[in-house]
Amino acid sequence: MKRNSQLSGVLHVLLHMDAHDAPMTSEVLAGAMQTNPVVIRRIMAGLREAGYVRSEKGHGGGWSIACDLKAVTLRDIHEALGGPSLLAIGNRTEAPGCLVEQAVNAALTQAFDEAEALLLKRLGGVTLAALARDFKKRLAARGGPHEMEKAHAG
């Protein structure tokens, strides 16, 4: 079963952007997410609409953080991405008239809804600033500068 790692990837590039003193191009960010720059531009457009990032055109342009990291939660970013499903599992729907399937789906739907509500609550309790602090702590423990290109070299 394929997992959707978009939220994790976006949080990843946002922390790289925060650690970088200048705007970062879609091409550089795509390297960090191991995706195509077009995908980055599409994702960043949604984050820009929400006010979390800004873009600058021309030489030296690119994407940069446009918000206070203390005021933005992981849930906020999840919602800016369109609120994709948080669970990779779901109900069987091949035989909607089957009473067994109906009973199973009713029980599972309740469990899925409760799990998603808990997960959204937890995401709402973690800010981008908390992630940035954790990253900086890890960087200090390792010693040396933050070099995204080296960290993501194949």
Summarize the structure.
With 154 residues, this protein is mainly α. It is built from seven helices and two strands; from the N terminus they run αααββαααα. Strands 1-2 form a two-stranded antiparallel sheet.
Fold and architecture overview:
With 154 residues, the chain is mainly alpha-helical. It has a single domain, classed as Orthogonal Bundle (Arc Repressor Mutant, subunit A), CATH 1.10.10. It is built from 7 helices and 2 strands; from the N terminus they run αααββαααα. It has helices at residues 6-19, 26-33, 37-49, 74-80, 99-124, 128-142, 148-151, and strands spanning 53-56, 62-65. A hairpin with a 5-residue loop joins strand 1 and strand 2 (62-65). Helix 1 (6-19) packs across helix 6 (128-142). InterPro entries: Tscrpt_reg_Rrf2, WH-like_DNA-bd_sf, WH_DNA-bd_sf. One of its GO terms (cellular component) is cytosol. GO terms for molecular function: DNA-binding transcription factor activity. This is Transcriptional regulator, BadM/Rrf2 family.
Separate helix tally: 7
Number of domains: 1
CA-based shape: elongated
Strands, count? 2
Major sheet size, sense and barrel closure? 2 strands, antiparallel
Strand content: 5-15%
Name of the CATH class: Mainly Alpha
- Parts with pLDDT < 50 across at least 5 consecutive residues: none
Distance between the amino and carboxyl termini: 25 Å
Oligomer: single chain
Give, in spatial order, the strands making up the sheet with the most strands: 1-2
Fourth CATH level, the homologous superfamily: Winged helix-like DNA-binding domain superfamily/Winged helix DNA-binding domain
Helix proportion: 55-70%
Structural class: mainly alpha
Overall mean pLDDT score?
Answer: 91
- What Rg is obtained from the alpha carbons, in whole angstroms? 19 Å
